[in-house]
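Bench log, entry 3. Co-assembly request; chain sequences pasted below exactly as received.
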Amino acid sequence: MNPEQLRFTDTHEWVHLETTAEGKTIATVGLTDHAVEQLNDLVYIQLPEVGQQVRRGESFGEVESVKAVSDLYSPVDGEVVEVNQKLTEDLDPLSQDPYGAGWLIKVQVNDPSQVEQLMDHQAYQKMCEEGM
Amino acid sequence: MGRQPWRLILHGPCGPAWNMAVDEALLESAAAGERGTLRMYQWCRPTVSLGYFQSARQPQLESLRKQDRVALVRRLTGGGAIVHHHEWTYSLTLPAGHPLARQHQALYARVHQGWVEVLQELGIAARVVEQPPPGPEPEPFLCFLRRSPGDVVAPGPHGTVKLAGSAQRRRRGGLLQHGSLLLEKPAWPQHPVGLAELLGRKVDTQTLLQDWLRRIEALFEVQLVPGQLTAEEKKQALRLMAARYIQPQWTLRRNR
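Structure output for the full assembly:
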């Protein structure tokens, strides 16, 4: 994914929307490179099950790094349709390719306009530079 | 400019589930933007606290629990199991706006520097670990047998021992860091020794605490103002204790 084409939460998740041939809107959700760098030395991740409902702003999983556990927050309301299970065995893709092989979950979105309300890349970069 | 005030809560020995529930309630307050809070507490009975993702399936733990020699609770924070018996436990909660809420390694180092200074004053050559060599795989069950950057260690009779360690939880930008200073070897057969064994005597724990609090004020440039939990925090802690920390589904859940 090109980060410039993504939307961002203030809790450092990124989201990418696509529409399937059946007309469903699917959001791919991941953690930003800034967050991954801040977390440093990831050791364990817990992700939701397929079929689980997630809500915007609520935790959908957790990641542990150097004895620090952080929540992962959903940018949208919807149903989890796919989970990057490979990460539960090997977190390297998340550390090395957070916008690609390190994606976390895919969510069938109820309301795509929720994504429009998120930050674009420029705004997110500015937030990070300001130390948020 | 006066120093920024932090609330200081001094709790005596409390039950395991209550201790963990109070820390989470304080994290909720911090995530909602409340000022920093430092809470000191102890445990009303020897208790093993598991790291958030840690499995409860450990032979020594199962044996001691069968004999009713230790209680068990699961923390909200990461890391290995701690045997809370003879120790000072602290929790520090910071709101999202605090610069150190985003620098987890710096926060470990700053808090632990206070312990290092207190221990050095007692004549112990304590230091903060910068980058430990790779440890055994899988990691030891006990936190005090593991080494992480920021841990406080000192020379012991049979090699280096860990005297203090901490772990963190981040939620909506707020941060909870809690940790332990090992005053004495706990009731766990293979547990490393603590401060009393290194010194060959017990220390006055209240004097040690006051010394550390003074150093925390200096290191963080804050003023610790004695306070209590708010009514809302107490209510939230009671709710969390009932819904989570006394529940076997939470404590014994299977993880890695």
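Chain A has one domain: 3-129. Chain A touches chain B through 18 residues (CB under 8 Å).
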